[in-house]
Amino acid sequence: MSILFALFIGLAIGSFLNVLIVRIPKGESVAFPASHCPKCGNALKWWHNIPLLSWVFLQGKCAYCQSPISRIYPVVELLTGLVFATLAMKLGLGAEWFVTGLVFSLLLALSVIDFEYYAVPDSLNFTALGLALLMPLFDFGWDWAMGDLKAFSFYQEALLGRFKDAAIMAAAFFLLGYAVKKLVKKDALGEADIIIAATMGAMLGFPLVLMAIYVAAVLAIVPAVAARDHMVPFVPFLAMGTWIVYIFADTFTRWMGMLYG
Ligand SMILES: [Zn+2]
User: Fold this and answer.
1) Do 104 and 207 belong to one domain?
2) Full domain range(s) for residue 134
3) What pLDDT digit, counting tens, does each position of 111-127 carry?
4) Cα of 36 to ligand 1 centre, how many Å?
5) CB 1 within 8 A of CB 93
6) Residues 75 and 152 in one domain
7) Number of H helices, E strands in the chain
8) What's the 121 CA to ligand 1 centre distance in angstroms?
9) Listed residues: CB within 5 A of ion ligand 1
10) Using CB atoms within 10 A of its CB, is residue 221 exposed (0-12), middle (13-18) or buried (19+)?
11) 61 strand-pairing partners
């Protein structure tokens, strides 16, 4: 039951992500005006706006002008729904579930925007980092509300750990970018990648975050080779690596234990 609830919450948030993805790169307000067709400008009725279902019963076309609606919308909604449902299975419902879901939703939005525009808006990027860093505070608030407060040092250590791991990752990516720039005279890692690396550090901690970078690099090899001289957006791969390692954290930890234990 809670998984189904999580799925519906995720679908609704995915619907809002689509608004962010369409409007933020253009510098438009995310609140006004209400959702409208980008072609004919007609405002959408609420039944045109139901995540996933509307796209299916409208057969992927605007109800007014019949111009095609991008497949990206239902895909983003479905992926966000699955993210929240999967996290509910792993974490149960609560502040950690919801905030973790928001961080991965933002990483998904950043991935789509990077893929379409080769640029990542700072507003979404810093929001993801902020949520990832402050997760223990939300956790604290939730546990307090539930009357299930752990020792204060638990939240304190978690908070400090996240800031430390984020700072190390940001510094490492900054130095790596600097070194690559000196060596091959090309901008390999931008400011956006540094912020995402910090978010990854906060979400996964060491040594799992290194595993996520490794997974991201492996996933990016084929597209990077296939694209040759074209730019390959790296954010989607970093996001996928983070997601895979986060969900299978126990398995990755066991593997690393076998290697070094
Ligand atoms: Zn239209």
Assistant:
1) yes
2) 94-261
3) 999 988 888 999 999 99
4) 8
5) no
6) no
7) 10, 0
8) 27
9) 37, 39-40, 62, 64-65
10) exposed
11) 68
